[in-house]
Amino acid sequence: MPPSTSVPPGLHAALSSDEWFGRCDPALRDELLRLGRMRKLATGESLFARGGEAEGLCCVVAGALRIGSLNAEGDSALLAYLEPYQWFGEISLIDGLPRTHDAVADTPSQVLVVPREALLAWLDAHPALWRELGKLACRKLRVIFVAIEELGQLPLEERVWRRLQLVAQGYGSRDAPRRRIRLAQEVLAQMLGVSRQSINKALKALEAGGRLRLHYGEIELLYIGSHDAAPLTNLPK
To answer: If both were cysteines, with which of 81, 129, 151, 174 could 170 make a disulfide (CB 3.0 to 4.6 Å apart)?
Structure first.
């Protein structure tokens, strides 16, 4: 694992922009910061690998991580693209089983890692707060159920639109979605299991329909929700 450092002052306020952390019991929030250590990752560096030992609860603090895996043919399947301040790793924290996916830095990144054994010991002394971890896991489950339903019912253009909204909303972690997303078309293609050419065609159709605008290295969402929803305004970039 990469070398770690202590948590910098002022991180609490930034982490509170995440809906789950912001609504957690204050005692758990304080303990996560007390136990947590910062880890720096270079582009392409792995935080953990599929099948690896569960080492703790994690949160992206800077940069972005790809959560996915490689199949037998060496093709990449991307489950999620995580940006600040999104938490992950709760599944292995809860069940103690190996990691389900790879976590790799897409850009130079920093991750807050809360060691599993220390956090479990604290939760054993405060069992009522296990519910907070359950809420984090349930939020992920709700997103997964929606994605599975869309896979079988929606055409690719709509699936792309819905996935962009999920990323903009931090998979439900942000009250205010981002208007601009730095997401390569290749990454979006891996998320949806289609070719980059298909993604490019769908994005151009969405742009022609007035739902988004394509920029170099960025996708700007002009609407949230359905095509007839009101334009996005005053959102963080």
So the answer is: 174
- Is residue 145 packed enough to be buried (19+ CB in 10 Å), middle (13-18) or exposed (0-12)? exposed
User: How do residues 187-213 score in pLDDT, each as one tens digit?
Assistant: 888 888 889 999 999 999 999 999 999
Task: For tokens 């099948």, name the residue.
Answer: 51
Q: Which of 203, 146, 213, 217 is nearest to 179 (CA)?
A: 213
Check if the beta carbon of residue 3 is closer than 8 Å to that of residue 36.
no
CA atoms of 155 and 176, how far apart (whole Å): 27
Asked if residues 210 and 201 have their Cβ atoms less than 8 Å apart, the reply is no
User: What pTM does this model have?
Assistant: 0.74
